Amino acid sequence: MLELLSPGGTKEMVREALAAGADSVYVGPKAWSRREAAYELTHDEVRDVIQMAHDRGAKLRVALNADIEDGSHADMLRKVEAYASWGVDGFIMKTPGAMRAVHARFPEIIIHASVGCNVRDRKAMEQVKEAGATQFVASTALNTYERIAALTRTADEVGIGVELLIHSNRCVTGVGGCRLYDYFEPYFEHEVVQDTDGTTRLKLIGNPDKGGVCYRPCLGNHIPQIAEKFPEKVLTYLDKSNNEIYNLLEEIPRYIALGVRTLKIQGREYPTPLIAQLTKIYRRLIDETRQGMADVAGARAALEPVLAERDEYRNAKTRQLHGRLMTKMSEEMHRRLMAQMQGTEWDPNAEERRLLAAEPSEASLFSRETVRS
Hints:
The protein has 373 residues and is an alpha/beta fold. It has one domain: TIM Barrel. Helix content is 48%, strand content 14%. The strands form two sheets. Strands 1-2-3-4-5-6-7-11 form an eight-stranded parallel β-barrel, surrounded by six helices. Strand 5, helix 5 (122-131) and strand 6 form a beta-alpha-beta unit. Helix 1 (11-19) packs parallel to helix 2. The longest helix has 48 residues, at 296-343.
């Protein structure tokens, strides 16, 4: 059965998304998902929103879609066990080893392979299915109906469901496929995040796969200090494809007919009213499509002012992230200069003693005069 899956960056956002008609909402626990900690929920809040969703007859998914190393499985499973006891309806995950661990412990709970898996071919589908996923988010690099339809047919053959981001950003080579952040690794920030259950975990700000927000350097190639970090081949690529934001509103009826399992809205970092509006618009269009009377033009008219607000917020966030990156780059340059200065062995005291020792003195002048006479 088709579901509309909306983001929940706060308890308030979960509440408003449900009120706007979301079938399911996804949240991230502190330090375990691909977002800043400000848009993740504490352990106790996850319990609250699971109950909140169930009270409305909806479902709650928990995103554990940062990279999760084998050494973190014990902490992860303790959290998963609590979520399962509270009735969580599914997990959104990226790391195959972590998926296997969760699936082995709770085979009855569905696992979504995160957009971070960047699934765009049969081999990737088979890999996430083997790890325990029952559905996957199609790569955001697939930018036409024809490509998504072909992927869906292949998914049917593999026996795995398709989840589609209908309101998101493309990212470079698809979300989860981009590695432009590697060029800025010296400027990552280490943030230790503690949850209310006592667990502590490290986020790397600048690296979305490590749970931090991306600095969005792809959108900063007009800034000389950022552009100079990229080789020419990257700059050439960015000139033709640069992390476009998109929506698939006009194609919603076709994707429903195609048999896509989940239609997902991205945006835990957006303001709550904006997410509520997006959810309401897509909910109405989905219901109209099911009734055979989809008003796509009306939905587009309702969406346009929301898009303007979204773009304004996103652009402001991008400028903030670029400012944050520039600050880190300046700090790093300052540290290097200081290290160079501290690395010198020049000692003014020793130098003064050497110079004084080399100066002529009255005694030495008297000695030379005596010798000449």
